[in-house]
Write a structure and sequence with these properties.
The protein is of the alpha+beta class. The chain has 2 domains: about 1-65, no CATH class; about 70-190, Immunoglobulin-like. About 30% of the residues lie in helices and about 30% in strands. The protein has helices at about 15-25, 30-40, 45-65, 75-80, 155-160, and strands at about 1-5, 10, 70, 85-90, 95-100, 110-115, 125-130, 135-140, 150-155, 165-175, 180-190. The chain has a 5-stranded mixed beta sheet, with no helix packed on it. A hairpin with a 2-residue loop joins strand 10 (about 165-175) and strand 11. The longest helix is centred in the first third of the chain and has 22 residues, at about 45-65.
């Protein structure tokens, strides 16, 4: 997209991908220098960059505040820990179960689910809770680490703090052109606030 400048010449605007790469520091030196120069003279792109920054801050605040659920990569979870985030992790073996809870100082809760992921192209997850039996939520094409053999689920910790003790089940499915097959099934036995018994 381009617009006329105040001097009458046409200015080609930075694309969304270029702005994201610039903001994340993923652009190479030449692209970064060109973006710097462009942003000095282009109010339109400067405004779009401000929107991107506000959006990223809003997403960050919602995520670290436990107001959104997510599926993460192991590298991202490790980066959060390195940044000092208080993360409670539970590792669930293949087709296994774990007892879990949330404590007042926890900022994030991560379920590391082991699964045979070698050669898998796409993974879907079926989620169900004993608080709403019969209702299933399907997460499609979620991130996974085939090398580590795990999927990392991050529930909404602010919601979990308010819930009573319950069971939360997860089924992982490999999906391809031939259909789908189960990779594993897992259960989290969550102990609600005030129930005691877990640390």
């Amino acid at each position: 997209m381009s617009t006329p400048s105040a001097r009458g010449r046409t200015i080609d605007h930075l694309g969304w991908d270029e702005l994201v790469a610039y903001w994340l520091g993923d652009a190479d030196a030449a692209a970064t220098e060109a973006a710097d120069e462009h942003l000095i003279h282009c109010d339109n792109c400067g405004a779009r960059l401000d929107e991107l920054i506000a959006l990223s801050r809003g997403v960050h605040d919602a995520f670290v505040g436990g107001r959104v659920a997510a599926v993460l990569s192991g590298a991202f979870a490790d980066a959060l820990k390195a940044a000092g985030r208080r993360i409670r992790e539970y590792r669930v073996p293949h087709n296994g179960a774990v007892h879990c809870t949330v404590r007042p100082g926890d900022e994030l809760l991560v379920g590391r689910i082991a699964a045979p992921l070698a050669g898998v192209a796409r993974v879907d997850a079926l989620l169900e809770t004993s608080l709403d039996p019969g209702h299933r939520e399907r997460l499609k094409d979620i991130p996974f680490d085939a090398t580590a053999g795990e999927v990392l689920l991050v529930p909404r910790i602010d919601t979990l703090r308010r819930l009573p003790s319950h069971d939360f089940s997860v089924r992982l499915l490999a999906v391809d052109a031939q259909g789908e097959r189960e990779l594993g099934h897992y259960r989290f036995h969550h102990r609600g606030v005030g129930a005691g018994g877990l640390t």
